[in-house]
Amino acid sequence: MYQWRPLLLTAQNRFDVSSVDVTLQQEVSFHFGYVEVASSARIFNETPINPRRCLHILTKIIYLLNQGEHFGTTEATEAFFAMTRLFQSNDVSCHLLIKSVLTGAGHLHLCVLTKDMTGKEDVYRGPAIRALCRITDTTMLQAIERYMKQAIVDKVPSVSSSALVSSLHMVKMSYDVVKRWVNEAQEAASSDNIMVQYHALGLLYHLRKNDRLAVTKMLNKFTKSGLKSPFAYCMLIRIASKLLDETEGGHDSPLFDFIESCLRNKNEMVVYEAASAIVHMPNCTARELAPAVSVLQLFCSSPKAALRYAAVRTLNKVAMKHPSAVTACNLDLENLITDSNRSIATLAITTLLKTGSESSVDRLMKQISSFVSEISDEFKVVVVQAISALCQKYPRKHSVMMNFLSNMLRDDGGFEYKRAIVDCIISIIEENPESKETGLAHLCEFIEDCEHTVLATKILHLLGKEGPRTPQPSKYIRFIFNRVVLESEAVRAAAVSALAKFGAQNDDLLPSVLVLMQRCMMDSDDEVRDRATFYMNVLQQKQKALNAAYIFNGLSVSIPGLEKSLHQYTLEPSEKPFDMKSVPLATTPITEPKTEIAPVATSKLPEKLARSRQDIYQEQLAAIPEFQSLGPLFKSSEPVQLTEAETEYVVRCVKHTFARHMVFQFDCTNTLNDQLLQKVVVQMEPSEAYEVIHYIPAPSLPYSQPGSCYSLVRLPDDDPTAVSCTFSCTMKYLVRDCDPNTGEPDDDGYDDEYVLEDLEVTVADHIQKILKPNFGAAWDEVGDEFEKEETFALASVRTLDEAVGNIISFLGMQPCERSDKVPENKNSHVLFLAGVFRGGHDVLVRARLALADGVTMQVTVRSSEETVVDVILASVG
Amino acid sequence: MEPSLYTVKAVLILDNDGDRLYAKYYDDTYPTVKEQKAFEKNIFNKTHRTDSEIALLEGLTVVYKSNIDLFFYVIGSSHENELMLMAVLNCLFDSLSQMLRKNVERRALLENMEGLFLAVDEIVDGGVILESDPQQVVHRVALRGDDVPLTEQTVTQVLQSAKEQIKWSLLR
Known about the structure:
Chain A: This is Coatomer subunit gamma. By secondary structure, chain A is of the alpha+beta class.
């Protein structure tokens, strides 16, 4: 009796332990509570035992578990012991019920199960195996290994399937044991039964998936011999496409041919799987897509909703990358617009929006609005994304879109949905200046009744940025001040900031803004009061420079960096005031190209604020004693490759700029498994007056484990204009040969060196990007004290776009006011760039470009420091 | 996406009030009963009015079917082959339809709960599709018929069981 105790305890833990809802729903035939069940478990103790009654009780227990009912310790113990008595009964059916369904609840009697496993009655053997494997652990597995091997090759399909699937479950637990059953699984794979084939293939793949060669062999074998089971075909297609993806196999490989041949399979499931595999392959050409698209087109007119859904969803994916490939299906998609399944209709419309012409947009939009209220939020987001893409494609349609979006904004919907709409409207405003006023008006209306703080603050921020520059700024003030009166603290604070921007930009509004500020200073919340007082005082000075520095363009430092510096400052009290310039600058977030998000679990991604790359580097470098005296890290460049990708050693370099020094971080990887490198140093020969003062070697570089070595370089003090320099680099190290398998190195080694590509330091390495939201104000703030202007002719450049791109990447500065986008069909353009030069001097560049034969460029540079202006002009010329 | 046999994330049967009659979750997408019930509620609200058979909810593909006062759902990841999920759903429905002699409704199902438990266990095991042929499923479940032939019972046993049955019918 006692040896059951520990087993039981684990068994009970598997009961769902969450809700204890004793008041059960009043079921017709399940009108009882679990207390009742537990007490009625007494009938298990009757002699002779009545299996049928027991069965009834067991069914009820399972039902209760299934309802999320929690079983108390005593009850479970009692029920469990009662159940064990059932094994003495001769009625096998009871065993099976217990085993098959109570698997989660019992460590059952091994020998009883093994008895059933090998018993005469075939139908019991399958479930017995599954139950047994569910409760077994690694040590017990050894004992049943023999039975399992037999069961896998059993001639009865259900037994074989059960054994294979159970083995698959156990791979996670004891890979090594299950691995020994490969031969049996191989034999089962040639079974006639379709499910056995499928399960055997699945198990074989799981056992071999880390061995690419074995997977290839297996694929070859099965693709040649052909399979019966559609499920197994689907699995094969998935394995084949994974392998194609990994090996980057060309589309002329036999695997691709196999997938394509599956498009002609009899079974729809296989055909669809093959089509979807082809569609999901990266870099597929239109010609390769064509057969897949045409079978999907056939599916579009299927009577089965699931098939139509699958087809149109896949076509939607194709349309994201190859809209032209889907155009052939436009007619079929049009028919699906009125499909009774709203999911299908939505997908059809969004696909059409991507592939259709400008003229069909109005009609489609009308169609969507007729049922947008009936579809789920996920699909609404899909619709919004489609509209957003459409706006970029056909900017002239923005008024239709804007109307539609504002209607959607008024409907009910979750946060994700609303955010998608707001983002879409904002992007339209940014793309089309003429839609600005209507867009802002819609957003104003939205924040009047918006329960999402994040969205409200975002919109207020946008109003503050864009509102003051519209022809009639006064009309937004009312909306903003309403927020101050009605909303929560965070929104009120955002509203105050927005108000201040109106006051700073528009002199005629200033008196009224000041009055409103005065009211805000009586707010109940600290933050709101503080902001109001601060802005009030700044505004009263009526100085453009102050406005620019403190209202339009806020701090541009990295927040974690500021926190750290302030903490450091408070630890070492000194007479010196805190210097803002000692704080590392915030790196402007690199705007990634918008990836198309399929409606997949978007809500589940945790929104974590990742630390910027620079903060991580800062910490890494600060840990090295030699670099501690260098001050704050000013800028870290993107990694530069110094070797080809496929060489013995892979080296890339990150350039870290400090106020007077540069640190070069070489990330080296040793790709030779028979070598161990030690004391790795990259020797640098500068071409200019740069001076290498220190090398920090990477102590040891084993196979495939990246390591870093550093070089510290002093920038020339006497000539501040020497910003560019070329270094020739050589990697020097001590090689010790080692055994590729064990990694055990020989005792002695020899010195060797490896020549790397040259490393360039350019002016961009000395300038950090910062974004000035209001460039005009910043331009005035810096003033024209050190302004210089020069004109250049860029003969080799043919278009304005190209010129803008070149200038930005050359200077490494941040384009402001969206001036990096050149409007179409224009012959001139003005580019605004902002940055901070090493040492903390603001630099602003205005480049007027004119397109004639080549591009003529007039560059105006302003900075708080004269040398900086010279440096920039010198490097441009 | 890693090729895998784990296809089904959950099998649900709800009644026409959206209450759970049967629910089996095969992975940890919804670990607690509270989350499960919330998910079921959401599913039911989105599907009970329309008789279309497929939807995308909370990033999962849901195929479903309703009959009289029962709603059957099979749930898989959004990358899953929809037709595979459909095969599971059809197999479940057809098996039950045979077992309940075409009488697929709530009351009949509640009276044959053990049949349902066994059938689902035969169709899906731990998320892997075990069988897709309803004939096979019915065959495997039916052979374990819970009716022990009367001849094997003693007279006292028969009396006993009759007595119990009366007792239970009173308890209901």
